[in-house]
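2024-03-11 09:14:02 INFO receiving multi-entity request
2024-03-11 09:14:02 INFO entity count = two
2024-03-11 09:14:03 INFO echoing inputs for audit
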Amino acid sequence: DGGITQSPKYLFRKEGQNVTLSCEQNLNHDAMYWYRQDPGQGLRLIYYSQIVNDFQKGDIAEGYSVSREKKESFPLTVTSAQKNPTAFYLCASSNQGTKNIQYFGAGTRLSVL
Amino acid sequence: SQQGEEDPQALSIQEGENATMNCSYKTSINNLQWYRQNSGRGLVHLILIRSNEREKHSGRLRVTLDTSKKSSSLLITASRAADTASYFCATARTGANNLFFGTGTRLTVIP
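2024-03-11 09:21:47 INFO inference complete, emitting structure
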């Protein structure tokens, strides 16, 4: 099946801990994105990557880090510097020339213990 | 920053009625898209309208775009209980590589 896979579905973070959310796509898309969604809110862009080994900060990058070593993978690390990490995290991908239509994973819900 | 604002924030209708959601945005765009999100799930793309188009249809969906007013509307006709979800507009801003999402309208269709 083609698509975007996010794991884990649920994640718990202890105080001072870094956690990494996985995002893998087999759609051969060039661009990948990470969004944060708080309850009853819209999506806010954390980071995006247009190409392997390159990424740009979105609107709320502080306390987060990413890497793009492979086209298929765009992991997001929530660092201890992110003081309010409890949220629903969504990964998406898109291809050049398709008018920025984005395809989303099922999300990871992160909570703080 | 979020580009769009949806109106209303929440909408509750009876099955079979039509549902209309509105989206306003602030800057020039290449296209505007509507997405649907079921509770606790990812977003699914529904329909895209380009900046030089005024109306587009897809099944029970009708989208309009008024670039002079920087607004769009999504009409779902003959609603079904399965249409219950949150609906988001997203704009592809001129010169930008990413989408800017609105705050969403939560639609409840009562059987």
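2024-03-11 09:21:48 INFO post-check: The radius of gyration of chain A is 13 Å.
2024-03-11 09:21:48 INFO post-check: The mean pLDDT of chain A is 92.
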